[in-house]
Predict the 3D structure of the following.
Amino acid sequence: DNKFEEVNANPNNPEVVNPELLMVTVIRGTVNQMVNEAFSTGNVVAQYATEIREPNTDRYIWGSFDTWGNGYTVLRDVNNLYKIAEERQLNNYKGIALVMKSLIYARMTDAYGDLPYTDALKGKEENPIYAPAYDRQEVIYRGILADLVEANRLLSATGGMVRSDILYNGDITRWKRLANSLRLRVLVRQSKRVDPSAAIREILADPAANPLILTNADNAVLRYVEAPNLYPLTGQRSGFFFDRRLSKTLADQLNALQDPRLAVFAQPTAASQDAFTAGRGPLVYTGVRNGETDQNLGSSIDRTVSALGSSYYRGLQVAVPAQGLIMTAAEVQFILAEAAQRGWITGNASTYYTAGIQASVDYYRQMSGTNISVTPQYLAQPTVALTADRALEQIATQKWIALYFNDLQGWHEWKRTGFPRLQPSFVNNNSNRIPVRFRYPTNQQVTNRTNYTEAVKVQGPDDINTRLWWMGN
Amino acid sequence: RLAERPIRGRVLNEQGEGMPGVNVVVEGTRIGTLSSATGDFSLNVPDSASTLLFSYIGYQRQTVRIRNQNVIEVRMVADAGQLEEVVVTALGVTREKRALGYAVQEVKGDNLTQARETNLINSLAGKVAGVNVTGGSNSIGGSSRIVIRGETSLAGDNQPLFVVDGIPINNSVSASSQRQNIDYGNGAAEINPDDVETISVLKGPNAAALYGSRAANGVILITTKSGKNKKGVGVSVNSTTSFESVLRLPDYQNEYGQGRGGQYNIGDGGRSWGPKLDGRMIAVPVNTEWPPKTGEMVPWVPYPDNVKEFYEVGRTLTNNIALTAGNDNGNFRLSYTNLNQTGIVPNTDQQRHTASITGKYALTNKLHISTGVNYFYTISNNRPVLSYGNESIVYTWIWEGRQVRTDKMRDYWVKGLEGTQPFTYNYQFNDNPYYTMYENLNGLLRNRLTGNITATYQFTPELSLLVRTGMDMSNERADRRRTFGSNAFPLGMYSQDRDYFEERNSDFLLTYDKTLSSDWQFKVSVGGNQMRQRRDELSTRANALSVPGVYNLGNSQVPLVNIQSDSRYRINSLYSFGQVSYKNALFLDLTARNDWSSTLPASNNSYFYPSVATSVVLTDLFDRLRTQTLSFAKLRVGWARVGNDTDPYRLRNVYNYNTPWQSNQAVSESSVINNADLKPESVDTYEIGTDIRFFNNRLGLDVTYYNTVSRNQIINIPLDQTSGYTSRFLNAGEIRSRGLEVVLNATPVKLSNGFRWDVALNWATNRARVVELVDGLDTYSLPSRYVSVQARVGGRMGDMYGRGFLRDPQGNIIHADGLPLFTNELIKVGNYNPDWTGGLYNTFTFKGFTLGGLLDMRKGGSIYSYMYVRGNEAGQLVESLPGRDNGYVGPGVIRNPDGTFRPNDVNVTAERYWGSGFFNPEQATFDATFLKLRELKFGYQVPNRWLTRLPFRDVNVLLVGRNLFLWTKVPHIDPDTTGISGDTLLPGIEDMSLPSARSLGFNINFRL
């Protein structure tokens, strides 16, 4: 009955769309999640921040977190973007889809380890796979690296116009920079397992074909606009934001260095602000131990402990300058510094290292509008100036500072390098170990039980202490 | 040829009025006729005829010797034993209950209008076996959930179909799910009890087969009052005034105040882990300044009644006036009801005006026209926000400390910041509850019209045609207004939801009714129906306002968020049913129906389903069975199948709209894989029952056993998210539901002085099990919150899963670092379906006095209490007290390195123990058994002889109460509640439900 088919044709939604309609979904969907997770989990476990109320994250009472759910949800549309682009032979959209795919899978595997990858996202194929098998992390890493090479190849001036590109406004070269920079990140991350030197050298050998993010202007950061596309934290009540405070670990480190970025990362304590206003003392930045006991937190924390920076929150739905960080020039410089230091490439580690610090401070000056800068004195401090025997720790520590509020990257780098030397939360429920991975979502035991069981057998127990493949033995 | 002679006459009812439609038959022949609208009849009888038989449903059969009379007048007498046995069945056909091969139970309108509920569904609680009514969120004007014979559908809401005067009406839940829910009520809630003559509950598919797809969960058939059998003009008035108060509040602790770590702090989220409330002087913000002045000292003492003081006495006024008139050719009834209610939550209300007119007229002897129109106008100035979140006042009271003074919060604006900054005890998360209720309003305006027009034409005494069309149309507008200064919307908010719904049903029914002989009767009908449904929803929201206090979409500070959803749905049907009866004691019913639904793919959209039912009245068929003891015995057996379709737009995948980024539109593909090959579902039911009466009908027992199997359900099975999609539609699953229903009616005492004690007992049990899902899937998740409701193969419908305690082999809870450990995997923590339900109605009457009481009992079943979880985490409830001063050592064990266990000896603070997630789903799920004194009435019927000088007649005065008493072991809450998510009620979940209300009042009704 034709009439019936007419009655049952959905009048509300389209069945076919142009690729640009998926761009906002894919980019915003990923970066918002990175910001939210940086705030709620990444900053806490990497001890930039601590939790002062219901401190489940700091106590390592961890659920499975939504990296997984968000990742596969956005990947559905990344996949659609790729397919539509392929059908219509639009190479640049294809390349962007591959960059986003790589970014998302890397986020997920760095948090969970083994994942459904090869068989994933095939629920609507002709031969559908409803319960995909897990792949080992090394397989996923190989796939990511191949996709990034392919993305760099596809992205080109002749690959067609890209619209609704809220990250780079259609600038394809910058997408190439992100593709290659991500490739560097991934190569270094797995360097305990696979020697990255040849690949890194190959990238650096041809800067025209393999451009990198080397200046803040090319940073992969999402610049939020007006409501309803404000920085994700603005959707939260003030109590939610002030529940996270400056961690003692970061406060001590930056106070010792007299690091100018502290003024952006955190706010002076309320008590010191009052005193400062009254001309009775300096602005003071004080942190709280991660996992501090309730008794020690007491009732005066509002006055005596620093909140996170006002660049990140100024009230519900009030615009702030903070941006969604994917990858910045500072991180690339620190990667190159480490590569030089380890002899993977030729070049001066110190030059890259100083450029990294410079790029990071510059970035925070531009972002926050605070007048901060790197002084020669800062660089000359014995803890900062690169010394051969401590260089790797120094690079890693500066990289850790530069990765503030950047996804879960600070935590992953700590897992890889062991730097900075973090102490487990003061009170914790994980036998005094800092977690190294997320649990798989509990629904894996329901909707994908066989493959889940197999994955646990291969990778190790599904708990927060099971080491990832790239962490080495 | 035999000689004939004409005989004419008139059939009268007990009031002496002409009685239409009475069957007049010459005994031993097929010669017969029906009495006309005026009760007159005429027919030619053979000379040999000696006796005329007069029969009418619900009346004793009259036998009249003809002798030499040419004019016969006969008076029909209602059959006392039979009168209540006439029930309205599918398609509005009135039938003798004895003829039915399936269970039908009826509730008379009088039972709804005295101790009344503002939601009609709640009036059915405890009154019908196998009908399980669960109160919703207790919101004023809110929804209730009704399930008949347990849950057989995985995907549907398991709600029955509501039919008023032959026209299906909409019973969907109207709720706003923007951020936190607001419950605007289920459709059937609005039906006006004053206009209800009877409610027939058709429990199984057998009874309901003729209503097709949507009747798979049973049918609630409502017949409205008419002016039938009333000569002249009559006026009746019914007035109820009742007062509602909180039935139960949580058990709060009153020893420790707001704060954490034993110290007071206003900025801590309102946890009550602060200092002991020992009267010390402490600096807290108690005045109305901003920022709060922290210097002022007040005595640190508890205010144990601070929550109780907040709730008010609600008031419900219901007034009905009805006018009836009739003559030999027709009748009409006009009724107006005014419901005016204020809630127990401050500044909540509901007003409902219902006007109803029904009429019937015999245009000619053969053509009758009738119509019924009901108009509903519902308006609320404000309804409360539900669920967990800071727009809900139940939430607010969890996070306000025990030292909070309610009276200090009444004047809620901060001086000098009126309109933008309210005063509260906790600025980071909580709003002042008075501010919430008086400033942040959720209004509703609903216009609704239901009605039908029916014409019947009697071609011959045997052949008649009914043609009918009817509709249910509603237009609803819900506004949410948020002033500046709330935690959720510091810059205000305004949203407007518009919901237009219409369903039109047109049908015809051709009936051939033939008395073959005095022993054999035969009736067959053929009919058809077309259902057209349309729903248009539009929701627009301004998430921040430019000017405070102006609630207009033009006043938005940010881009408006729009959501539009239109849907169309159509079903065409043809059906036929037939009955054969022998000696009015042996009955056989057959039905057949075919549906064509727009929601299924063209290749599968036609589906057929039959039913068969038999009834044997043993005591009539075999006279010797009838004894002094046994007055009546009947056996019934039936089988039925009902097909079912699905919701619109489930065949092809689409993209959904996301929030745009400036001018860049964004979409994402739906995460549900639709299916272009769906097939109709089917539900098969067998039922067997008996109806036995003893001692001259003083004791009656009705027992039914049924077995329902639903197959090929169209379900949205969850997929592993890594497939890229979260679920897909397919046909799968088999649910087997069995149950037993017992209805017992007795008159234990009946004295000659007029004293009488009547007992009505309803009891039912049901077990619905999941027999099969789909290959490779043994678990299907149903909508829920906090716990996971899962249909697992071999499990029971309603099983609730969640994380539990990790235990040693002896069952002791394993602790680590002083805290209990939880299981990683989900364990079964309960089942929300009761083991059995029962209602016991006792009525005592004596010389015009009536005392009646309904006890409603639900045995077993589980409820998860989110109040328990968060209230204890907040340190507000009594469970959180142990260990406050010296720390707490949780009862349980610690795992030794060698795998053995030793008793836990780690002392942690109470705040850490109770306040950091001790309360898992296992701990927070309770046996929901409860007993409620649902209804109590004490009335007096003023003798008319006292009123001879007054215009009043039949004056009845009653004291009435509802939900007067609750007995349960569940802490803190009334377990008779559900959560709500979108427009779905979530059974088994208490999600910051508002307290339920006890109602006490009086009713007066009389005629003029």
User: Anything to note?
Assistant: Residues 334 and 356 of chain A are 6 Å apart (CA to CA). The radius of gyration of chain A is 23 Å.
